[in-house]
Give the backbone structure.
Amino acid sequence: MAEAPAISPIVILLASVFTSNMVLSNFLGMCSFISISSEYKTASGLGAAVAMVTTITTVLNWLVYRLIMVPLGLEYLRYIIFIVVIAATVQIIEMALDRYFPELHMKLGVFLPLITVNCAIFGVSLFMVIRSYNFVQALFFGLGSGLGWWLAISALAAIRMKIAKNKLLRGLDGPAITFIITGIMALAFVGFSGIFVIQ
Amino acid sequence: MISGAQLKALAKRNIWDENQVLRQILGICSMLAVTNLLSNSLVMGIGLIFTVSLSSWTISLLRQWIPHRVRMIVQTLIIASYVIFFDIIIKANLPEISRSLGPYVGLIITNCIIMGRAEAFAQSNPPLLSLLDGFFAGVGYTVVLVAVAFIRELLGFGTIFGFNVNFLALETWTLMVMPPAAFFIIGVFIWILNIRSQGKVSGGGRNG
């Protein structure tokens, strides 16, 4: 087992929001990022749900990986086990929200099943294993990645609402312009690089 | 059993008319990240072809026995088993590529193309046909992947499959290696395809 890197959790948090943003520099969670970003409110709701689930599942997966899989030598099963943990967590969160926070459930409920297959959530768990973070680092990495995803999809949705009424060149509307906007956003985020380095 | 014409139609539909990446905007997650080098993209594409054909085949074989309510999780487990298999093969035989692909091999599991083919096709079609459907969907994905990687590697590093083709020693275009380039290239691909198909269907209606 590799040693955890000596990086402050706060640096990991900031870096995973800005310099190595899950969508804009790691291309994770693109499917829903492109398809559910035409309206700001919906996008922000989805972002919040992803941020919450990412944080919780990263911590759970860290515990499962270190306390169960490593001692038993089952590392090669991590893809299956992580997916099952994520699916189970989403299910439990949905039931808990429904029972205790019905208002929040009304807002986020529709997104929860969708995000079981969001690559960003699964990807964060895999990155956490590859970079051999310790518990606190994993927690901040999950939180930062979730917040970064939320920030990116909210920004994209806001931009798309601005251009929705404008006339575009033929064939450019829909996914094409969305990708180009994302590219420009990614270019802007490149400006942050070098402030924090985590890999 | 499967006629040549049927095969041709299946191939044309999955590789061109309904290309999963450019038409359905599926499978983007794993696709853009590995496209700065051709060799990585090719391995990734082969991994996807392998997984999508075999999991479509398996799901189609088992389709009568999988209870409808739990089918998603069963499908995910079938897909994950094939991905683990592929991951172990890559690790053993191509350790360098395995290291540079990092988590993206595992992310094949959450690639929407595989689940999409399982839901849309393998659920209701015989095994061999599902295998071929998955295979061609995977080929369609790989073609786009390799096309993007070709542009990025050529302009970004001045190489093709690692061979230096930059004979004039021109300055390479650093942006092409960085993430934003992948977004721009795929956006332009979709744009060009939209213009072409709108021209054909005169009157449009196929955008979005």
In short: Residues 22 and 190 of chain B are 6 Å apart (CA to CA). The helical segments of chain B are 4-17, 28-33, 38-61, 71-93, 95-101, 112-120, 127-157, 179-200. Chain B has one domain: 7-207. Residues 202-208 of chain B have pLDDT under 50 and may be disordered.
